[in-house]
C-alpha cells in the first residue's frame, strides 16, 4: 500500500480495497442480530413509557384539568353569588333611599306646618300690637283734642275776630268750632 498525496483520493482507494477484501459491505443496512437487539430495546422502552412512566404524567394532567375546572366552577359560582349580593345590596340601598326620602318629606311637611303656625302666631301678635297701637293713638288723639279744644277754640275765635274786625265770643260759637274739630278729627 502506497501513501497518496491527496487524502480524499487515499480514502477512496482505501474503501475500494476494503470492499474487494470483504465482498459487498453496506454501511446503511444493519446486521440481523443488531436489528433484533434494537427491536427488543425499542419495545422495552415503549412498554416502560406506556405502562410505567406515562400513567403518572397522565394522572397529573387529569388532576390539573380537574382543578382548573373546579376553579372555573368556583369562579362562576362566586360571580353569581357576587351578583346576588350586589342585587340584594342595591335593593337595600333603594329601600333606604326611599325611607330617607319619606323621612325628609315628612320633616319638610312638619317644618312647613310649624312655619305656618309660627307665621300665624306672629301675624296674630302683629294684629294685636296694631290694634293696641291704634287704640293708644286714638286715646292720645282724644286726649290731645280734649286738651287742645279750649286753646284751639280761643285761637279760632281770636283769628275770626281779627278777620271780621269784631270781637267773637267763644261760648256762643263753640258749636261751630266743635263741628269743625270733629270733621278734622274723623
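^ C-alpha cells above, recovered residues below v
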Amino acid at each position: 500500500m502506497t501513501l497518496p498525496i491527496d487524502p480524499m483520493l487515499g480514502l477512496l482507494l482505501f474503501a475500494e480495497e476494503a470492499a474487494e477484501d470483504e465482498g459487498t459491505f453496506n454501511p446503511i443496512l444493519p446486521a440481523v442480530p443488531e436489528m433484533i437487539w434494537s427491536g427488543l430495546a425499542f419495545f422495552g422502552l415503549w412498554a416502560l413509557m406506556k405502562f410505567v412512566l406515562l400513567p403518572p404524567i397522565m394522572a397529573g394532567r387529569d388532576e390539573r384539568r380537574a382543578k382548573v375546572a373546579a376553579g372555573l366552577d368556583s369562579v362562576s359560582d362566586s360571580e353569581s353569588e357576587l351578583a346576588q349580593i350586589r342585587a340584594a345590596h342595591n335593593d337595600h340601598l333603594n329601600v333606604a333611599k326611599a325611607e330617607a326620602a319619606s323621612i325628609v318629606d315628612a320633616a319638610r311637611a312638619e317644618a312647613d306646618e310649624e312655619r305656618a303656625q309660627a307665621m300665624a302666631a306672629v301675624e296674630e301678635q302683629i294684629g294685636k300690637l296694631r290694634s293696641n297701637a291704634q287704640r293708644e293713638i286714638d286715646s292720645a288723639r282724644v286726649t290731645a283734642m280734649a286738651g287742645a279744644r279750649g286753646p284751639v277754640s280761643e285761637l279760632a275765635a281770636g283769628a275770626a275776630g281779627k278777620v271780621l274786625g269784631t270781637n267773637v265770643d267763644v261760648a256762643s260759637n263753640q258749636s261751630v268750632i266743635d263741628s269743625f274739630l270733629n270733621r278734622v278729627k274723623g
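Residues 36 and 42 are 10 Å apart (CA to CA).
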